[in-house]
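Record 1 of the preview.
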Amino acid sequence: MNSAAVLIGRFQPVHSGHMALLRHALTLAPRVAVVLGSAFQARSPKNPFTWQERADSMLAALPEADRARVAFVPVRDYYNNARWVRAVQRGVRELLGQDGKDVVLVGHFKDASSDYLDDFPRWRLVSLPRQGRMDATTVRDAWLNAEPAQAAQAARAALAPVADELPPTVLDELVAFAQTPAFAALQQEWRMLRGYKAAWATAPYPPVFVTVDALIRWGADVLLIERGHAPGKGLLALPGGFVEPRDTLWEACLRELAEETSLAVPEAVLQRALEKVQVFDHPDRSQRGRTITHVHAFDLSSRERPQVQAGDDAARTLWVPVRDLVAMEARFFEDHFHILNQFLQLTE
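->
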């Protein structure tokens, strides 16, 4: 018998197909490590539940006798496959103390998003056929499409077409969550994103959006904004936005800084303070569609700290000590924590 089994996924939310994979993993090994992806993301229509909530949900759907055999490995999104694979291997090794020789990986090749199953050659792969008829996206869309009034009844009605694909405990959890303010915020964002995508649905091919972001450092602080509108209302982000038709990247960066922060620094000073421009282009970095951003990193430490004031899409501006950023990871919009992590080496 294998010494341990591994199951990898986001499980947003847990459905019966996930539980079928987990039950099979439990037949193959005495211990199962469940790797929970997107572990420290802010709540969003794609990632509505924290990793702790997903772990509790999975355990609640198991027979009590099996719960002690399952442990969880939360792994953040790195938007870099090699780095993510190393993090998964490290997390499983630290949890199970396994060198990989007797570990079996259980999974299902759903589509291109399942290609990661081939990235662990030291683990024997057990590839199972599709379990059930629904995926998590279908469940989330049904759930978030519930009528706003009478939240509990509306959520049950909305989930009725997929209820037989959910463990009863998970169905109850979804209905309970639908009565919280967090659910109302998720619904607002989900509807905004659906309308956003509908606006270009008739294009001959999906568009690629180009954006800019500014990473402003002053001493041990970085300049952030709190987003004032969906998507990501209330979340922290770097100041930035879309490149307009007549903008260069540099002009777009200056314009967005002025609009969102009123940064009181002359252009010539910013030119001298520019340290690097780095492209972030992972296909999954934005739920709005394929969005490629160009991050302009500035160091203004040689000057007095500039005055800033929120405007345009920013609800407020704030200077945040770099040492505090890791503890704030779950409050960031899209991949903006990852961007900061790349520049500032926050987590490793």
